[in-house]
Specification:
This protein is 0% helix and 50% strand. The chain is an all-beta fold. It is globular and about 50 Å long. This is Phytase.
Length: 317
């Protein structure tokens, strides 16, 4: 039985179809952090919202060809002396991923990086999910990308992002990840510090692999499927000093299932008021007076996103 929790903020509405959020923590003033969210359409956008849920127009990227999922990372090295935070997102109809600096929102990709170029089946080259992984050992930045459909082995592609004299490049490093063949793989999340990638095989389970390519492609876990009504969707990772959690959208039940990050054990189910949630994101950082205990953001099918102070989810007592 799930418990209901009332939202604290609903963002302003997008034009078309919200899908996936990503939270950028402003290093100079956390109360001025930004929530980015995709608006999935042929003339779609990456919206930027403040912590009141208001659209920040000069940080919003418009005119995109069906942006699907978005993720971000901190401290991408452009050269020996310059680093920038970045967002990456899939642009499905252009069969590519995009990379922009944050918070100045400048493109770093010369128009985009093509993905799944060797796909052999229809819709096998249409990117959907994306997660960024910054290796704690090598400091290399990777994009792990899912797609509309693909083979039962090697469904995900992992690209190394590097900055060179002529600009940023994306190089295919590996193909990995099992697929049940039942629906699709969209939601992907990475635990940077532990080096694990989790993704939703929508009709089967949550799958876990090493994010570090050198550690191999062996599946580490396939869990949780029995707790979902139908589609297993968006994944967010909440990490505290002594414990971590996976928050996963139980889409058709309009709830979220919580799992222990270390053991993969089911913890509880929550109803946060969103309907048909695709993507979600979370931070345990103090974001100032509005969200001093951290922030959980979830997509709602009314063309907006909901914000919850993380303490309301009662992950830790």
């Amino acid at each position: 039985m799930s418990c209901g929790i009332r939202r604290q903020v609903a963002t302003e509405k997008t034009i078309y179809d919200t899908d996936d959020p990503a939270i950028w923590i402003n290093p100079n003033d956390a109360s001025k952090s930004i929530v980015f969210g995709t608006d999935k359409n042929t003339n779609g956008a990456i919206y930027a919202f403040d912590l009141d849920g208001k659209i920040i127009e000069d940080k919003t990227i418009r005119g995109l060809k069906r942006p699907n999922n978005v993720d971000l990372e901190y401290g991408f090295k452009l050269n020996d002396s310059v680093k920038t935070d970045v967002i990456a997102f899939t642009e499905r109809e252009n069969k590519q991923i995009r990379l922009f600096s944050v918070p100045d929102m400048k493109p770093l990709d010369q128009g985009g990086f093509k993905v799944f170029e060797d796909a052999k089946i229809p819709e096998g080259n249409l990117p959907m999910g994306i997660a960024l992984y910054k290796s704690p050992v090598t400091k290399k930045l990777y994009a792990i990308v899912g797609r509309k459909t693909g083979p039962k082995k090697g469904y995900l592609y992992q690209y190394l992002l590097t900055s060179e004299r002529l600009g940023v490049k994306a190089k295919l490093i590996r193909k990995f990840g099992a697929f049940s063949g039942q629906k699709e793989i969209e939601a992907i999340a990475v635990d940077d510090t532990e080096g694990y990638v989790y993704y939703s095989d929508e009709g089967a389970c949550i799958r876990k692999y090493y994010a570090e390519p050198e550690k191999g492609d062996k599946e580490l876990a396939c869990f949780g499927g029995e707790f979902f009504k139908d589609d297993i969707e968006g994944i967010a990772i909440a990490k505290y000093e002594d414990r971590g959690f996976l928050i996963v959208s139980n889409q058709q039940a309009h709830t979220f299932n919580i799992f222990d990050l270390k053991t993969n054990a089911f913890v509880k189910e929550l109803n946060l008021g969103t309907v048909e949630t695709d993507g979600c994101d979370v931070t345990t950082a103090n974001l100032g007076d509005k969200f001093p205990n951290g922030l959980f953001v979830s997509m709602n099918n009314k063309r907006n996103f909901f914000y919850h102070d993380l303490s309301k989810l009662k992950l830790v007592e």
